[in-house]
Amino acid sequence: VQLVESGGGLVQPGGSLRLSCAASGFSFRTYSMSWFRQAPGKVREGVAGIDGVSTTRYADSVKGRFTISKDVANNTLYLQMNSLEPEDTGIYYCAAAPWQNVRSWSLARSFDYWGQGTQVTVSS
To answer: How far apart (Å, rounded) are the C-alpha atoms in residues 118 and 124?
Structure first.
């Protein structure tokens, strides 16, 4: 299993970014996937999750601003981030695990596989 994130960068408050996670070695239909982020000095937190049947979940802090989606044909997970705030700054990771192993989409220890992360900085 391999996960490779891309799409991070520096953006002004109110701006948008789309993160991608290219996946290989497993089927999107049998795995749950989530996006996590980690800010300096803070614990890693779940941002959004999507399961094998495309049910989505979001942290309260990003509801209405972020959208998680997946392209099954191309084995790619996305996170569309709009109305970005400085508090959204951090390293963003995608994570994957067989759906039956995932107790909660936002619980980091539920996930077996992680990407290397991509930096998102929201600043003027």
So the answer is: 19
Give 108's DSSP letter: G
* pLDDT > 90? residue 114: yes
Is the pLDDT confidence value at 28 over 90?
A: no
Do residues 32 and 49 touch, judged by C-beta distance below 8 A?
yes
CA distance 97 to 30: 9
Residue 66's DSSP bridge partners are 81
**What are the tens digits of pLDDT across the range 79-109?**
999 999 999 999 999 999 998 888 899 999 9
Other beta carbons less than 10 A from residue 63's beta carbon: 10
**Would you state the pLDDT for residue 95?**
97
Q: Nearest 5°: phi and psi at 109?
A: -70, -5
